[in-house]
From TrEMBL:
<dbReference type="InterPro" id="IPR002110">
    <property type="entry name" value="Ankyrin_rpt"/>
</dbReference>
<dbReference type="InterPro" id="IPR036770">
    <property type="entry name" value="Ankyrin_rpt-contain_sf"/>
</dbReference>
<feature type="compositionally biased region" description="Basic and acidic residues">
    <location>
        <begin position="397"/>
        <end position="429"/>
    </location>
</feature>
<keyword id="KW-0677">Repeat</keyword>
<keyword id="KW-0040">ANK repeat</keyword>
<protein>
    <recommendedName>
        <fullName>Ankyrin repeat protein</fullName>
    </recommendedName>
</protein>
<feature type="region of interest" description="Disordered">
    <location>
        <begin position="394"/>
        <end position="429"/>
    </location>
</feature>
<dbReference type="Pfam" id="PF12796">
    <property type="entry name" value="Ank_2"/>
</dbReference>
Length: 517
């Protein structure tokens, strides 16, 4: 009987015929042939799930199966996100991708409303084998939360653009504050999908402000949802979201950078206007770039850039704040570029003509668009820093400061030139004086040399004269001595001769005397 029941609910027969078969089986009085309405055949899912797979729009079958005791909250393995996990019938029913046919809203609503035999709930949570969760309740658990994805029926209904089911779930006390595993709440998904009815319903209950919903609506160009979110007063049009995928961008910045630029311009313009009415700042910067610069970096930048210029940016196209700010990582000096210079210098992926780059067709088109809106070239460094040699379009205060610096630099240059000229003259004069002094010194040395030579020559003559005189005197003295010596010698010889004569005479006398004797 149980197998017969199971086969009847999955048979592709008409709703009324299937209902009649179920009633016949349920009316059986044979105790040994009673139908187990909670039994699940091998490799099958719960009866109510299999029935809805075959009859996705049958309210009568859902109601009757619940009355017979089919467990609407028994969990089974299915895929609510990108992975398989346990889910109950309600969560499964809201996911269109997991059904052979899209379940009708009335069938899902009946699943939400269905009550058991006595109209009460009996909660008992059991951990089963393979991490399956079995929840025995007599009504659908509207706040069922998936184990892995943390999805709830309300999150799934918001995600799959089922605003009527969102309203029904909220009425059934579904919790709109529960967030999925990526910290995304129902309002986030409804805003991303552009489900205005769901957004309005969710805004009537508790929700987390500035949860990224406004960013999602802005990026996907749902201007009506942008307006509703801002009007609610809890979504700031200038809120820099800390969500990892938003990286601190405001809704307008997110739209400018990441919206689909192939969409019609009126959709983009309407979204921009809605954000502007919410007092979105067009000059708010993200990584040094405001919304116009981010639009230039959009993967399809032409339509987005044009929409910004035609709505909020035209009146401020040459505003001092409409510049890209870059910081030199070494000097920490800030550089400012206008949109035209930003394109020409290749800062947005579109290289420049005057800096050795080549603008592609898109870049040339954007540059021409900016030119038609009278966007001026501006490129300069911050106040107080040494200005660029090719600076252009400076603000008045920076221009005055730059002129003052240039004038002072020119004065310093003039003073330095004068000083160098003075030093040169002094050097030349010193060199001339040195040459004159050297010449005088050389002349003096020459005179002194000549004097010395003259003196030496005179001294030499005197010396030679003295030597000659001394030699003469020596000669005279020698001659005198020789003469004196000669005289003395002669005298001595004479005396010797006299003495010899006297001696000879005496000897002769003696001899004579001897002879005489």
């Amino acid at each position: 009987m149980t197998n017969a029941f199971y086969e009847s609910i999955i048979s592709p027969l008409g709703e009324d015929l299937v209902l009649s078969l179920i009633n016949v089986l349920a009316a059986s009085q044979d105790p040994g042939r009673k139908v187990d309405f909670k039994a699940v055949p091998p490799n099958k899912r719960q009866p109510i799930v299999e029935c809805l797979s075959t009859h996705p729009g049958s309210v009568k079958l859902v109601r009757r199966l619940a009355e017979l005791g089919c467990d609407v909250n028994a969990q089974f393995e299915t895929q609510l996100d990108n992975f398989a996990e346990p889910a109950n019938a309600l969560a499964w029913a809201v996911c269109p991708s997991q059904s052979q046919h899209l379940l009708s809203s009335v069938a899902v609503q009946e699943l939400i409303d269905v009550k058991g035999e006595n109209g009460f709930c009996s909660y008992s949570l059991i951990h089963a084998y393979s991490n399956r969760l079995l929840v025995n309740e007599k009504i659908a658990q509207v706040n069922f939360t998936a184990l892995i994805s943390k999805s709830t029926p309300l999150i799934l209904a918001s995600r799959y653009h089922r605003g009527d089911i969102v309203k029904k779930l909220i009425k059934a006390n579904a919790d709109p504050y529960i967030r999925g595993y990526l910290e995304r709440a129902p309002l986030f998904f409804a805003s991303r999908e552009g489900d205005l009815d769901a957004v309005k319903a969710l805004l009537k209950v508790k929700y987390r402000p500035n949860d990224g919903s406004l960013h999602e609506a802005a990026r996907n160009l749902y201007s009506d949802i942008v307006a509703v979110l801002i009007k609610g007063g809890h979504h700031d049009a200038n809120f820099p979201s800390s969500r990892s995928e938003l990286k601190g961008r405001t809704p307008l910045q997110e739209m400018a950078l990441r919206c689909d630029g192939s969409k019609r311009s009126n959709e983009i313009e309407a979204t921009i206007v809605a954000l502007e009415k919410g007092k979105a700042s067009i000059f708010e910067k993200w990584n040094g770039r405001n919304s116009l610069f981010l639009a230039l970096e959009n993967s399809r930048p032409e339509t987005v850039t044009r929409a910004l210029l035609d709505t909020v940016m035209l009146r401020a196209i040459n505003d001092d704040n409409n510049v890209k700010v870059e910081v030199d990582p070494q000097t920490r000096v800030k550089y400012f570029l206008s949109p035209t210079m930003y394109l020409q210098m290749g800062r947005s992926g579109g290289p420049t003509d005057n800096q050795g780059y080549t603008l592609d067709q898109t870049g040339r088109g954007l540059l021409q668009l900016l030119r038609t809106k009278n966007c001026l070239d501006r490129y300069y460094v911050e106040f107080g820093a040494d200005q660029l040699s090719n600076a252009v379009g400076m603000p008045e205060d920076i221009a005055k400061e730059d002129k003052k610096r240039r004038d002072e630099a020119e004065k310093r240059k003039t003073r330095e030139a004068d000083h160098q000229e003075k030093l040169r003259r002094e050097y030349d004069e010193a060199q001339l004086k040195d040459r004159v002094d050297a010449s005088k010194h050389q002349a003096w040395r020459q005179r002194e040399f000549e004097k010395t030579v003259t003196k030496v020559d005179t001294s030499s003559v005197v010396h030679q004269t003295q030597l000659a005189q001394h030699g003469q005197r020596s000669t005279q003295q020698s001659e005198a001595l020789e003469e004196e010596y000669s005289v003395a010698a002669l005298s001595k010889v004479r005396n010797v001769m006299i003495e010899n004569d006297a001696l000879r005479q005496k000897q002769e006398q003696v001899m004579d005397e001897q002879k005489a004797h």
